[in-house]
Amino acid sequence: MSNDKRSGRSELAKREERTAYRLLLPALIILLVIAVYPLGQVFYTSFTNRQFASGQETEFIGFDNYQRLLSVTISQLPPVIDEDTNQPVIDEETGKTVYERPISVLPREPVRYREYKQFSFMGNRYVLGATDVDFIDAITNTLIFTVTSVFLELALGLGVALVVNSNFKGKGVTRTAMLIPWAVITVVSARMWEWMLAPNRTGLFNTMLYTLGLADGRVAFLASGQLQLWAMVAVDVWKTTPFMALLLLAGLQTIPDELYEAAAIDGAGPVKQFFSITFPLLKPAMAVALIFRTLDALRVFDVFQVLLGQSQYSMATYNYFQLIGNRNMGLASAIGVVIFIIIFGFAIAYIKMLGVDMDETA
Q1: Which sign, positive or negative, has the C-alpha torsion 22, 27, 32, 36?
Q2: Is residue 160 domain-shared with residue 305, that is, in the same domain?
Q3: What is the pTM of this model?
């Protein structure tokens, strides 16, 4: 009797499983059509020399696109030797050793390397060469932009979320007002910041710095190579901190008030309550917020494109330049794959570092 019952339950479970697969089938087909197939096409195209909007025959070229994008080398720069004294030449103005030009030591076959950076190590001078200096710069810019902006947005967003989660008069109005920067279209906000960052006293920030006596009112925020990236970070932090605060606020509201009441009875102050209750229980929401924001930051396009154009690239704007400007669809696809791999790596790293189970974030 018990065997029949067990057999009956097993048949029921099998029927439910088959029903579940049938119900999931339409969603799986849609996922394959709109996600997996295009992604597969991008991976395949990255191994070809396909040209965008061109009748040129497409050829399979293997890893040539990745080699062109990611190949780097380090070469030692020999000092210039004086023919008369057979000693290294010393610059009279700086008193430093004069080294050979990087072009004389960087490899040119099978691919040509260009100078990216020079550095000294243990008394020797080295040059870091790359086959695509612009893409290496784009990766560096994007990673610095991502790490800096996401960290600031997390810190500021958590502070805003803690404030608006407390009880005070006008809480609803404050929650609505904090979303205004996020609601503004990115291109519109970029144009607003372009005016505020103008390189003369028509710009808000130059006017403020001049009034406070901190600058001459002619700081070129969007033209100076040292300030461009930090200007992008400021624009992104202003716009996206409300989104981070909204996600963290949702996580805060899932924490039961009873836990704080019990902690207060036990004598725990606000700081101890934060680190023993709020932070541990907020980890799943933080993981979701970090993954979403990091994904957006790593593929940042509009702010860089509107404010900087081709003076400084992000990975996404360099991808656009190769696809539309150079019509090199194969190389652009390889850039897209690199962006995908970096985003995937960041997502896994966040989950591991925060100790969050995938089921918790679902």
Answers
A1: negative
A2: yes
A3: 0.84
